[in-house]
């Protein structure tokens, strides 16, 4: 399943790496593309969206509804 989430407080590529690592704790095989310019994170995962958003939130980021 492909998810696209908006993370308004992702400021730089290091933030993207942190978000990627957080997602991969839930799904180690997830493919993550985080773009700090657009604030969008594209995720190819088998995990539930709620688990992914919880991982991002627990890493200190906000997931906005789109």
What portion of the residues fall into strands of 2 or more residues?
A: 15-25%
Rounded to the nearest angstrom, the radius of gyration is: 10 Å
CATH architecture heading: 2-Layer Sandwich
The residue-averaged pLDDT reads 96
Strand order of the largest sheet: 1-3-2
Poorly predicted runs are none
Task: Label the overall shape.
Answer: globular
Work out the count of structural domains. Answer: 1
Number of helices: 2
- Quickly name the level 1 CATH class: Alpha Beta
How far from one another are the termini? Answer: 17 Å
Structural class call reads alpha+beta
Sheet bearing the most strands, described? 3 strands, antiparallel
Order of helices and strands: EHEEH
Produce a short descriptive summary.
The protein has 66 residues and is of the alpha+beta class.
Helix and strand arrangement:
Layout: E1 2-6, H1 13-26, E2 31-35, E3 40-44, H2 49-58
Antiparallel strand pairs: 1-3, 2-3
Helix pairs in contact: 1-2
Task: Please give a structural write-up.
There is one protein chain. The protein has 2 helices and 3 strands; from the N terminus they run βαββα. With 66 residues, the chain is α+β, with helices and mostly antiparallel strands. The protein has a single domain (2-58), classed as 2-Layer Sandwich (Alpha-Beta Plaits), CATH 3.30.70. The chain has a 3-stranded antiparallel beta sheet with strand order 1-3-2, with helices on one face. Strand 2 and strand 3 (40-44) form a beta hairpin. Helix 1 packs across helix 2. The longest helix has 14 residues, at 13-26. The chain starts with a strand and ends in an 8-residue tail after the last helix.
